[in-house]
Design goal:
With 403 residues, the protein is α+β, with helices and mostly antiparallel strands. The chain contains 8 helices and 19 strands. It starts with a strand and ends in a 17-residue tail after the last helix.
Length: 403
């Protein structure tokens, strides 16, 4: 797998005038048939794309019409998870956090064979850590992925994006880029790519899984980034937190619908615009989080446009440029990321031109977002638990930054 390609280097005969007859002298490494690491910076080998084992999961845009979504009951399974995740981790061989705010990777757990108790633990862990990664989940085919997702709630059907060619998988979202596709970097600003999935729905998703079934090799690009909305809330000053807690934002599906129409593709459900609180409280953790994303929020309700635009620009910067609230994942084939859309934004990254990238996503509908003023701060609660001081948010104080 590139960039560490292994090739055979064949021996060659040294010229007579530099041959040595003394066997005790050092021998040239070129006189032996040996494995040699060949590395070319920035290059990854493109796999042949003549055959694809997942033809039934290639993208398809059915020209059908669906009724508007209606509010349904939702009960978060994370509430029933073990505080120490003992059921989930009983078969784990390793578990580690990417950083204190977001992102955990678990080894040795087979997502296709989880018990209900393990699923509850998984939901609880995701609700705390934002996103959890599992490597090489070969047993988790699309049917098992849907079954696992449906345990957490009713699966969401996207109104515009691709579904698999195989019938009956309309609640699966297909991510697909062929090797000859044009790079998309010029089409979007980097900030705009940050989003939480379909937040314009009256019940945006909670637990969401994405499995990469074909993609660039290691180092070939196509990483995904996530940003913690718990941590984004905790970055704000107390007066700003209080102010934003009093506001709501409009989330619109119109831009996705317009893009589909422009591409000549069907829109299966009429686009909607929905008002949600700008700060929401999580039902499992009780922590407050920002509920905002650059991709779908169009305006803040009840304040002047200039003020709304300023808040949106500020929150865009908080989400997209604060490195300590980000995690970046380098995919490999059959890897799975499981995240909570209520408390995370995520962003694609480009730069993998030439490689095919194929992934399938399953998401379940969650509760309608609500703000509970008795909610807590993740950072303050964890600092108290771990004996850490609270962060000094006075930006006017002197600092000697020298990293």
């Amino acid at each position: 797998m590139a960039p560490a390609l292994i090739e055979n280097i064949q021996p060659f005969n040294l010229p007579t005038h530099i041959k040595q007859s003394n066997d005790n002298l050092l021998r040239s490494p070129y006189t032996e048939n040996k494995k040699h690491i060949v590395y070319e910076p920035g290059r990854t080998i493109v796999e042949t794309q003549d055959y694809h084992e997942h033809e039934d999961l290639r993208p398809y845009f059915p020209d059908v019409r669906w009724e508007p979504l209606k509010e349904i009951p939702y009960h978060d399974k994370g509430i029933y998870g073990d505080r120490d995740f003992r059921n989930l981790l009983e078969s784990a061989t390793d578990v580690f956090d990417y950083n204190p705010k977001i992102g955990t990777e678990i080894h040795g757990v087979n997502l296709a064979t989880l018990t209900d108790a393990q699923k509850n633990d998984l939901a609880r862990l995701i609700s705390i850590r934002g996103v959890v990664f599992f490597r090489n989940q070969t047993d988790l085919d699309i049917d098992a992925q849907r079954q696992l997702g449906a345990y957490f709630g009713k699966l969401h059907k996207h109104a515009t994006t691709a579904v698999p060619r195989r019938a009956g998988l309309e609640d699966v979202h297909v991510v697909f880029t062929d090797g000859d596709a044009k790079d998309q970097r010029a089409v979007f600003s980097p900030t705009f790519l940050w989003h939480s999935d379909v937040t314009y729905e009256i019940q945006p998703p909670s637990y969401t899984s994405l499995k990469v079934i074909s993609g660039p090799p290691r180092g070939g690009g196509g990483d995904t980034l996530w940003s913690s909305q718990y941590a984004a809330y905790d970055l704000l000053s107390a007066p700003m937190q209080k102010y934003l807690e009093s506001l709501s934002a409009l989330h619109s599906a119109q831009i996705q619908a317009d893009g589909s129409h422009a591409a000549g593709r069907p829109v299966r459900r009429e686009p909607i615009t929905t008002k949600h609180p700008l700060i929401r409280t999580h039902p499992v953790t009780g922590w407050k989080s920002l509920f905002f994303n650059p991709g779908f929020v169009t305006s803040i309700v009840g304040i002047p446009k200039a003020e709304s635009d300023a808040i949106i620009a500020y929150l865009n910067e908080v989400i997209s440029t604060t490195q300590e609230i980000h995690v970046r994942y380098q995919w490999q084939k059959h890897d799975v990321a499981f995240w909570d859309n209520r408390i995370c934004n995520h962003s694609a990254s480009y730069g993998f031109t030439g490689h095919r990238r194929h992934a399938v996503r399953v998401a379940c509908q969650a509760e309608r977002p609500v703000f509970d003023p008795t909610g807590k701060s993740q950072e303050e609660e964890l600092n108290a638990r771990f004996g850490l001081p609270n962060v000094d948010k006075d930006g006017a104080r002197q600092s000697n930054y020298n990293d």
